[in-house]
TrEMBL record:
A biological process term (GO) from this entry: carbohydrate metabolic process
Lineage of the organism: Bacteria, Bacillati, Bacillota, Clostridia, Lachnospirales
InterPro entries: GH, GLMA-like_second, Gly_Hdrlase_35_cat, Glycoside_Hdrlase_35
PANTHER family noted in UniProt: BETA-GALACTOSIDASE RELATED
Organism per entry: Anaerosacchariphilus polymeriproducens
Entry protein name: Uncharacterized protein
Length: 659
């Protein structure tokens, strides 16, 4: 056992060497009265939740007095800014925590958590492609590349180190991880790849990236079919002229984001705590390409999770698909899921809506789940609130800023509890009882869908509203066909033999190494189907014909699907007939996960009517009824089935030989 050590790898949290399901609740202490903190923490602990997440608003712990900035963490100006006392309470009740000091936090806090003195410093802004500035509630956001802004962030983070981390970082205290930024830097991890940054700083940084990549302007000109005398002639007007331009911009966008994560978090390195980045999920099919091209880390220093404010998957198949996509691409923890913010819809008055989302993500292998927020709060100091004219002028949805914060959370503003609390307790109890099995259990799909990030960078650069990967996944869900999604950069040929069918999503411009990987996969012949455009050039703009020649030499193109979704659906139907696990009712999304001799079967009813779901599992037969928009998890060991968790405790289940 690794004592006194916190690690995060493979999307999973390890505390002292033991794998832990990241089961947490978010409690905005800064929105509540200090007098109720302990009462609510006791209620949280009684739920079985022993981990909290919370933002630390810069604006709540600093004040400019006579031109000098003062920092405070002991309640000098506001009782609920006594973060030291809050940390002592967490330690007293043995509750771990993940702190989120921003610098930008959003969280419906004034200035997104920035103090007024930061926004008054007139830092250079972020610039959109059309030349306008990127604003938040009417105020320009500081450009994260600006060195003076970075210096101010380091001053703030140094205060976090001195006042909080020095005494409360694990193992001395209960802080086990630090989240940087919020859903990217400025809630922009799911923005379109061409949304930013066209500022002078941004373009200079991009040009420096190109200089390091291509070294010589002649090399750049040849590959991009341009005639520039120097890199400095590159402007937004002549930036996008070929596929390679889009690939360059996509890779730089990733470097841009990761540089901020790495540089701003460096001050925390000595504490040896994991650095987390919460990524907001792509909000539409058209934004998926940008999300895939931008959000990854190859250094191993950054750990990602995802947040879910996409909308209600109970009523929206599009949201259902997006949740499946995000939680299949990476087995990460869900770092925020709505549990009572009514501006997302009246359905969030009930636990079933949030639990429905949890079931979707757990079925795919999510390694954590955060109840956001676990407590309603109604004691927000005036300096954290917007003026009404600001809300009326700039808020997309004014309801976000009204009334009790997260009014229908499991623990209410007055610390009372009700049905929602009991429903969450039941869910937490289930997770804790089967924690290790759920972390180890794996899906064993028959289908692999392979992709290349460069293909998505091109699609994003061209502003395509259509994403074929999304449409294939949509078809898989509709036909109840399980699948993996694999980055071709990480695919090893020998590991692909476990699949019965492989879709390879290709584009006209792909790196030569990726094309070689595809060519190697094609030796499996009957397993592999090419989806999309056949590659024609590589990253050096050299003509490539290896994939085309493969089909020419075979004398037929039966395994080249192109963009034919009807053929995809026919192939999925054939694949399903070969499976050892066959759900019969496509209205009930059904997933099998295995660990050793144990099987977990997740069933999620997408229909507005009660459904009977029948499944063939190897040589056995399973039949059960699931209520409308209901869900069920079964655990099977040694042919004994137990109804582990369900939206309806009276669900009828039969498991045995088919009659």
């Amino acid at each position: 056992m690794k004592e006194n050590k916190i690690e995060f790898y493979g999307g999973k949290l390890y505390i002292n060497g033991e794998k832990v399901f990241l089961l947490s609740g978010d409690y905005p202490y800064y929105r509540d009265s200090k007098d109720v903190w302990e009462e609510k923490l006791i209620k949280i602990k009684e739920l079985g939740v022993n981990m909290l997440t919370f933002y630390i608003p810069w604006i709540h712990h600093s004040k400019e007095i006579n031109g000098e900035v003062k920092y405070f963490f002991h309640g000098e100006f506001y009782d609920n800014s006594n973060l030291v006392y809050f940390m002592d309470l967490l330690k007293k009740h043995n509750i771990y925590c993940i702190i989120k000091p921003g610098p930008f936090i959003h969280a419906e806090v004034k200035n997104g958590g920035f103090p007024d003195f930061i926004l008054n410093m007139d830092f250079p802004p972020l610039i959109k492609e059309d030349g306008s500035t990127i604003n938040y509630m009417g105020k320009r956001l500081p450009n994260p590349l600006n060195l003076s802004f970075q210096k101010e962030v380091q001053v703030w983070f140094e205060q976090i180190c001195i006042n909080i981390l020095d005494d409360y970082a694990f193992p001395k205290g209960n802080i086990i991880a630090i989240q940087i930024g919020n859903e990217g830097i400025y809630c922009n991890a799911n923005n379109h790849i061409r949304d930013f940054d066209y500022s002078t700083l941004g373009l200079e940084n991009y040009i420096d990236y190109l200089k390091n990549l291509y070294v010589d302007i002649d090399n750049y000109n040849v590959l991009h079919s341009k005639n520039l005398k120097s890199f400095d002639e590159l402007e937004s007007e002549n930036m996008y002229q070929c596929d390679l331009d889009y690939i360059d911009w996509g890779k730089w966008s990733n470097v841009y984001m990761n540089r901020f994560y790495h540089d701003s978090s460096f001050i925390f390195k000595s504490y040896k705590l994991p650095i987390l980045i919460g990524l907001n999920s792509p909000a539409s099919e058209g934004l998926l390409s940008s999300w895939l091209a931008r959000n990854y880390d190859e250094t191993g220093r950054i750990n990602f999770g995802f947040t879910n404010f996409l909308g209600n998957a109970v009523n929206s198949f599009e949201v259902f698909v997006q949740l499946i996509l995000v939680s299949t691409l990476n087995q990460w923890p869900n770092l925020e899921d709505n549990w009572g913010h009514m501006w997302e819809g009246n359905e969030y008055r009930y636990a079933k809506t949030s639990l429905y989302h949890a079931m979707i993500m757990l079925s795919r292998g999510a390694t954590g789940y955060d109840t956001y927020n676990i407590c309603a709060t109604d004691h927000t100091e005036a300096h954290l609130l917007y003026e009404q004219f600001e809300i009326d002028s700039y808020a997309g949805n004014p309801e976000v800023y009204k009334g009790i914060y997260c009014a229908e959370a499991p623990i209410l503003a007055d610390a009372e509890t009700g049905d929602k609390y009991r429903d969450l307790f039941k869910f937490v109890t289930f997770i804790k009882e089967y924690e290790q099995e759920l972390l180890e259990a794996e899906r064993t799909p028959d289908l692999a869908i392979c992709y290349c990030k460069d293909t998505f960078a091109i699609q994003a650069g061209q502003k395509s509203a259509i994403n074929l990967l999304y449409q294939i996944v949509e078809s898989c869900i509709s036909s109840n066909t399980d699948f993996d999604i694999l980055d071709l950069e990480n695919v090893k040929k020998e590991e692909m033999q476990k699949y019965k069918m492989i879709f390879v999503y290709t584009g006209k411009c792909m790196p030569w190494s990726t094309q070689k990987t595809i060519k190697d996969l094609l030796t499996y012949e009957e397993l592999v189907y090419i989806v999309g455009d056949l590659p024609a050039i590589d990253e050096y703009s050299r003509e490539t014909t290896c994939i085309k020649n493969y089909f020419r030499n075979r004398g037929n193109y039966n395994h080249y699907i192109s963009n034919d979704l009807l053929k995809v659906k026919r192939l999925l139907s054939l694949l399903k007939e070969q499976s050892e696990f066959i759900p019969q009712n496509d209205e009930v999304y059904t997933v099998l996960r295995r660990v050793g001799k144990v099987k977990f079967i997740f069933m999620i009813n997408r229909s507005n009517e009660e459904q009977v779901n029948e499944c063939r599992i190897e040589n056995k037969y399973l039949k059960c009824k699931i209520e409308e928009k209901g869900f069920l998890i079964l655990r099977i060991e040694n042919d004994i089935v137990s109804q582990v968790y369900s939206s309806n405790d009276n669900t009828e289940v039969y498991f045995g030989m088919e009659s």
